[in-house]
Predict the structure.
Amino acid sequence: MSCDRSDKPERGAELSRRDLLRSGAAVATLTLAPGVTLMAFGGSPADAAGRADAGKRWGLLIDVSRCDPDCDACVTACQVENGWKDEGNPETDAQWIRKVTLKNRDTGRKVSMPVMCQHCEKPPCVDVCPTGASFKRVDGIVLVDKHICIGCRYCMMACPFKARSFIHEKHVNQKSWAPRGKGTVESCTLCVHRVDTGRIPACVEACEATGNRAIIFGDLKDPNSEISKRVAEYSSIALRADLDLNPGVRYSNL
């Protein structure tokens, strides 16, 4: 399938490279709201060890045939849940999840779909992190420990999905479960604070509420889960399958 991609302007990887070369791996300045702790959501390997279940592999299955191109309920829900905003400044705004349009050059077919951190089994962001701030929980969720993130942005350059953002500004009125520190990197957490209490991610909940049910969440290791049954029964693909990252996010009807 030969595709052109058009979506909202993105924070390019080239910008990150230029910034990195200018500033070096400067130690990040963390600015948090009173009472907000960076560990609030299992945001370190030590904390995650007590929450994550090695017997599970959390993931998403996104059916692009059900994704309405005019719907951004998943994006809005993520913003409300986690306290980030897209204010039209693509070089500096956070963007934990974004809607992307793909067009087949040969047939003209267009599809719309959400793209977020793919929660890879072999995440390149973790491989390049010099401090261990980027890490993968035993249940497959990839996170950032903001206490030891130095803002070098190596992970942003390594991510083939442009799924990570650098926090440029101070933040107030933060969500206690989604702390955001100036000078650190962030991305989709798969709503780990919800998952750890038996709930589903906000994007999935919002998509279900629209009636589209384009996003299914579940345990990929459980053969009886809906997501596992769907993956087994219907063809699905991983983005950039050529990289052999085995993402926890898969797409069908793409």
